Amino acid sequence: MNAMPFLKTCCRTLVALCLSQSLAHAALFEDDDARRAILDLRQRLEQLSGTGVAQSKSQSDEVLRLRSALLDLQGQIEALKSEQAKLRGSHEQLIRDLSELQQRQKDVQLGVEDRLRKFEPVKVSLDGAEFWVDPSEKRDYDAVMAVFRKGDFGAAQLALSSFGQRYPTSDYMPSVLFWLGNAQYANKDYAGSVNNFKRMLSLVPNHPRASEATLAISNCQIELKDMKSARKTLEDLVKTYPDSEAAQAAKERLTRMK
């Protein structure tokens, strides 16, 4: 029996087996086909050399070829096993690199979202109105009002005027004008106070603080000794905002002015 076809078949089987295995198969070299190929070669060697019968030269050559093939096959298996270990190591490193890259990507994304959030409009509820403003605009308004609440009306007047110049179309403007008028009244700038209260009323006639602004205008006119205008303002207040607390105060003042 010529063993070379059999050897070639075994080699082809093992090579095909080795090449078809992926990195996920950790037991590549424990495969039954590989073990069977080696066992078959060894069995063939035993049949040729272990019978105790004198061998012909052709049989001796066949034994040598089989032994050489067996050693070569084992060498290939060891080489493939070593290569698989390297590839497995590379694969594990790639997994670690991918995990680190994904974490960095997540960190960058979170950082970008945090930065973008600083520029996203925020919803504000103020004096019965709701509107959206830039975060920087809200911060500026809050800072201005903090100055007003401290009672530093000189600084508040400057801050409110500066806000109005910076954000002339802001939805904050009616409230800004109201508090600016109050700061000017406290600073005895009565003419300027009247002007800003009237600007507020022209922007939002139905503003929740409109009746207060109208009463404040009459106060400024009284301080300016313009009693005729003050009386007219109080009468308009009673007609326009009859159910407000400011209207009740206006009626009392009208009674005293007679």
Give a description of the structure:
The structure is a single chain. With 258 residues, the chain is mostly helical. The protein folds into 2 domains: 115 residues; 136 residues, Serine Threonine Protein Phosphatase 5, Tetratricopeptide repeat (Alpha Horseshoe), CATH 1.25.40.10. 76% of the residues lie in helices and 4% in strands. It contains 10 helices and 2 strands; from the N terminus they run αααββααααααα. A two-stranded antiparallel ribbon has the order 1-2. A hairpin with a 2-residue loop joins strand 1 and strand 2. The chain is rod-shaped.
Task: List its traits.
258 residues; mainly alpha; Serine Threonine Protein Phosphatase 5, Tetratricopeptide repeat; two-stranded antiparallel ribbon
Give the CATH level 1 class of the largest domain.
Answer: Mainly Alpha
Report how far apart the termini are: 140 Å
- What's the average pLDDT? 82
As a whole number of angstroms, the C-alpha radius of gyration is 48 Å
Integer count of domains: 2
Binned, the helix content reads: over 70%
Describe the strand arrangement of the main beta sheet, using strand numbers: 1-2
Overall geometry comes to rod-shaped
Element-by-element helix/strand order:
HHHEEHHHHHHH
Tell me the major beta sheet. Answer: 2 strands, antiparallel
SS-based class = mainly alpha
- By DSSP, the count of extended strands is 2
Which regions have little confidence, pLDDT < 50, spanning 5+ residues?
Answer: 13-29
Q: Please tell me the CATH architecture of the largest domain by its name.
A: Alpha Horseshoe
Tell me the strand percentage band.
Answer: under 5%
What is the CATH third-level topology name of the largest domain?
A: Serine Threonine Protein Phosphatase 5, Tetratricopeptide repeat
| Oligomeric status | single chain
Q: What's the CATH H-level superfamily name of the largest domain?
A: Tetratricopeptide repeat domain
Number of helices: 10
